[in-house]
Amino acid sequence: MAYDLSPLTCFSYTWPVPTFLTACPRNCYSTCSMNVTVEENRVVKIEGVPENLATPEGPCIKGLSYVERAHSAQRVVQPMRRGPDGQFRAIAWSEAIELIATKLEDVRARLGPQSVLYYTGSGTKGLLNSAGTAFWRLFGGCTTTYGDLCWPAGLEATRLTLGDNTHNAPWDLANAKLIVLWGKNSAETNIHQMLHVDRALKAGAKLVVVDPRRTETAERADLLLQLRPGTDGALALGVGHLLVRDGQVDRAFIETNVLGFDDYAKLVAEWTPAKTAEVTGLKASQIESFASLFATMAPATISAGFGMQRFTNSGQAMRAMIALLAITGNIGKPGAGWMYANLQTQVFSHVKDPIDFYPPETPDGVVRVSISTAKLGRDMLAQADPPLAFAWVERGNPIPQNPETRLVVEAFRRLEYRVVVEEFMTDTAREADIVLPAKNFFEQTDVIGAYWHPYLQIRPKIVEPPPEVKPETEIYRALGRRLGIDDDRLASALPGPTNEAIEAWLTSKLDKFGITLDQLREGPVLSPEFREVAFADLRFPTPSGKIELYSSEARVRWSLDELPAFREADERPDRGDRFPLHMLTPNTKNRIHSQFGNLETIRRMAPAPFVAMHPADAKTRNIAEGDGARIWNERGSLTLPVKFDYGLRPGCISVTNGFWLVEGGAVNVLSMGRETDMGYGAAFHDNAVEVSRA
Amino acid sequence: MRAAFLFDPDRCTGCEACRIACGIENNEGRDTGWRTISTFNPQRHPELPTRHLSLACNHCDTPACALGCPAAAYDRDETTGAVLLDPEKCIGCRYCSWVCPYDAPKFNESSGVMTKCTFCAPRLAEGGQPACTAACPTGSLSLGTRENGEAEPTYHGLGKFGLGPSLKVEKSRLAGPPPALAIDELVLDAPSQAVPKRKITLSSEWVLLVFTLVMPALVAWLGGGIIRPPRKPPFLVFAGFGALAIALSTLHLGKPLRAWRAILNLKSSWISREILFTNVFLLLGIPFVSVPHLSVAFGMPALVAGIALAFSIDGVYRAIPRADAKRMHSAEAVPTVALLFGIVAAEPVVTIAAGLVKAVLYGWRWARSDAGVPEPFGVLRVILLGVACAPTMPWTIAFALAFAGEIIDRAAFYNALEPSSPGRRMSEELATRSAKP
Fold this sequence. Notes:
The complex is a heterodimer.
Chain A: E1 19-23, E2 33-39, E3 42-47, H1 61-64, H2 66-69, E4 80-82, E5 88-90, H3 93-111, E6 116-120, H4 130-139, E7 142-146, H5 152-162, E8 178-182, H6 186-189, H7 193-202, E9 206-210, E10 223-225, H8 232-245, H9 251-257, E11 258-259, H10 261-269, H11 273-280, H12 284-296, E12 300-304, H13 314-327, E13 337-339, E14 367-372, H14 376-382, E15 390-394, H15 398-401, H16 405-414, E16 417-422, H17 427-430, E17 434-437, E18 446-448, E19 455-459, H18 472-482, H19 487-493, H20 499-510, H21 517-522, E20 525-526, E21 547-548, H22 552-558, E22 581-584, H23 600-603, E23 611-613, H24 615-620, E24 628-633, E25 636-644, E26 652-654, E27 688-693
Parallel strand pairs in A: 6-15, 7-14, 8-9, 8-12, 9-10, 11-21, 12-13, 15-16, 16-17, 22-26, 23-25
Antiparallel strand pairs in A: 1-2, 2-3, 4-5, 4-17, 18-19, 19-20, 22-27, 23-26, 24-25, 24-27
Helix pairs in contact in A: 3-18, 4-18, 5-13, 8-10, 8-11, 8-12, 8-13, 11-12, 14-16
Chain B: E1 2-7, H1 17-26, E2 36-40, E3 51-55, H2 64-68, E4 74-76, E5 83-85, H3 95-99, E6 106-108, E7 113-115, H4 121-125, H5 131-135, E8 141-146, E9 167-169, H6 206-227, H7 235-251, H8 270-290, H9 300-318, H10 333-345, H11 348-367, H12 375-389, H13 395-416, H14 422-435
Parallel strand pairs in B: 1-9
Antiparallel strand pairs in B: 1-8, 2-3, 4-5, 6-7
Helix pairs in contact in B: 6-7, 6-9, 6-10, 6-13, 7-8, 8-9, 10-11, 10-13, 11-12, 12-13
């Protein structure tokens, strides 16, 4: 085959066929390195890369499923236009570009460029993603979103407390003697972490899991704390109370490195085991066991998940959790620390997350950053001067994935025109006027970082895309030309069309770090900012230079208490009024959000959505296993078959997120578009519902 | 020393990457069905831990599949130790999937032959490891070695079968469920888990029901005819039913045209012996029943083959691993032959002895609520047995009634017949645990 792969010869085991080193670009902790075998322009095999110390054993089921996904018959492989009958028909690129450009010129003339919403999700990571914004600036501007669906409350809590989102190397977890997986089901969402957890446990470490669900991860726990959802902050304060009360704190460490300990000690004084137990729904003895593990087992690492910080009170909760490590001196040491987000590879941006996705302090008048991702539907509808008329969606599927699906659908339908760049006919693509085929990550070279491990990785072009599939950079070039943007200006925003040009563009980004593409082709490369042990120098880039249990910025920026005080989340299903059940919408091993579920490989394991209920909750509602159940609140309803799960905390139900509206399982028809207390995150899990037999 | 699968249960999260990798390596990405992940306590009942077991073929030292295969379709690859199935030799009788306690061989409906894990022998031969162990993202499943005579692994879903499996299971650090919220006020049901779908059902195996009733009946009838020549089976009946039994069981194969291969493993396969003795019995029996006034001596060789056939039929089913495999069943072929023979030969001692054995065995099963058929049928079966044993009954009617009773019991036999498998053993273990006070 005559495609230009000559410079890409990488690992060669004993097989005579070429294998290529690449990395999975999904929004996932693991960002696995993969050895991909290509035969006749097809991905035929995917295997692990032991050189990546974080994921040495190989990718997860989703990584393996690329063998199907890359060449799936379901892929969108040419531009599609929705006809008046709602059916999509293939059209030529020239026609697609003409239709889109005509509409763009029309709305720009009538309403201004900011009537165009440029919406991107987290579907594919890569440096080339920045080309989109550069293009829309050439167009004259656009409207975009701020905040993030995923993890901002935790990022901001970490930034306020420690100054930076960085943590020890993933493999350092094996050195811990106490591991707390707080709201994290690593076995499903960061399966590679389980290797390091197991290494620590085999060496005698203890594992505490804090989760309303008895997850697969929790099976290994020495202590499982199934607290009432949304009360993590109270639990952290209750543990802090016992540590302070019993003098189990590291005075010397606090003296040198912690700001606000005395105020913190006053705050936790009221969080007696009795009060903490009452608020969290745990037993006082469980809280005491947890505190005593903290007092006796060192070093301790808390690895916190994302689900737990999707509440309206969770930024403060995360700060209270970090405080436990600060007061016990569990920061800056091997086996110790706060493992939440590791942005050591985010070296290419001027500012790091979460600041990177906050609205700019001084708007530039070109790109209007005015829509909260958490409130996408509501804010899209509310835009004025100009209102939105056109949406361009890339790498995202906001209809089932952003909160309050009903409003998101309404907002999209209210627009004059929608273009979605997609690999598959997702719920969002089905709402489009034009669907443009998206490349997959085997079809254009790019470089990616990660947010758990510290490696920079290349994901080279290793197969030719189907003939009518263009990478986004080329879609923008074609559109730009049609819109009359001259080639020089386009060239300033977009790398050239050939693989050599893409590589040159990437090389220019890597140059200042002294990293070459050839090095990346040899194996995953540690980021220049890599530190095996984060904060080992005990320098914290906070205003005070210390770990801030007392944060003035919390007050100034977020109007929150300077201390990590607890307040209840907005929705209170525990009060037993109209909506007495807590709806949890966790991620599963089978998907990354709404991706992968359409593949046969995955459908064999997870063919259809269901609701997990504790048998006790089901019985009081006269529901038997297998019955249909209607889950409902003021925002919407879902009808799903019931599976019994004794592992759930009674009062909680669980539907894994990511199923599509067309599959009848889109969980966000029930969630509320609402921000977290800090960081502009989405408080998906503040979600009270009732269930009745369908 | 031999290559073996190593399984660390504490690391297995039940993710199924091993199964997917198998499909990619061996079936262009589609599921091979060779590797199965079974879960103990999937509902996470608080009294018990939830555990997974990932299992494919264990390439045993004494492979039950190969020993039971009538067509000699199995062989061991000497370089890698892999037990391999030759799809060109397999006749699609599915018997290997009944005798393997690990549920490793799988029937492929479209090709009509069995398929099974190859240990990725080509990869192994090149110094690599199987796709499944290579893919395991947690390092739970890996490739290692095992000494001869090493103790059998124990874990949820495993058991002692004495086959020398190439499987080692690390000792689990985890004894019980995670210490969690004690929900004192909730009264919980006992733990339970779904029993896997059956491999053997009466509706799928009715052909075998016919075969294992018709052949013993013909043996008994011929034997009775030796004692009482006027009662010899008529040629057309004998040859007709014999041909029917052979034709049905041949068409029941995934590859009927390869039926001749079914006698290639007389050394160790009860099926091979069953098929051989069926043919010998019919070939020797036909001259005896078709020539009038032939000396009874001509019937004796056929009768010997027939008795061997009855033992072979029972041998086929005795070899299937299951909890009650060692226990004699009232519908087994040998007592059935004896019962019917007694009736034809008008030897009430034999009839009543066989009838008593059957009645006792049946009553014992009944007492364990294990009759295997709805109660009215069970009652009918007992009545038929009793009436048939009555010495005053004309022999033809007694024979017919006894045969009808045996139909019911043999149906019950197939209804209850299901090979032990990892998933079944897990649900049985859960049921046992929940039965404890």
